[in-house]
Specification:
The longest helix has 35 residues. The strands form 2 sheets. Strands 3-4-2-5-6-7-8-10 form an 8-stranded mixed β-sheet. It has a two-stranded antiparallel sheet with strand order 1-9. The protein is α/β, with parallel strands linked by helices and 201 residues long. Helix 1 packs antiparallel against helix 2. It has one domain: Response regulator (Rossmann fold, 3-Layer(aba) Sandwich), CATH 3.40.50.2300. The radius of gyration is 18 Å and the shape is globular. The chain starts with a helix and ends in a 6-residue tail after the last strand.
Length: 201
Amino acid sequence: MKTRKSGTRPRREHESRRRLGILILATWASLSIAWRAPAQANPPSEYTVKAAFLFHFAQFAEWPPNTFKDANAPLIFCTLGEDEFHGALDESISGKTIGNRPLRAEHLKLLQEVEGCQVVFVGVEDKKRIPALLASLKDAPVLTVGETEHFAQEGGMIGLFLEENKIRFEINLGSAERAKLKISAKLLALAKTVIGGSRGN
């Protein structure tokens, strides 16, 4: 009986992880499929879906403890330059928390203002500022997300792109690790491509 009980807990934990993985996969798949379905009466816009992706990216990332001023400090999502979301990001995170932290969106015009952000999104309209942005952060614990071609290959942490009318993403794990950001293995498993890093977390 003892032998049987000792094997029950690992099996239950494995089954719990498997179910969680299926739930996550279903959630992400529904986001992409919902956006591309033209038959819907009110299909979500591309940036409504991308706003939801940003929220989920933050759920599966872990920042160094000294990133925040205190345990109740908000987790801040920032857009740089032209706000491609037009309110969709604010709506997506409104009233939500990650852990005990409230979420807040800020829309910035100047590169110098990104200090204090935990997630920074750069749209295609501001692609010329990407090299300066990545250089200015200098491996600071800021999750950088972009939608320009080769964003992750050029040093950004998460690059969004379209493939067969679905929103996909790739992760530069090496960039995240240098910034001391931990990316969940569950998120890595959902990425189209993972660049560099150890993939051990």
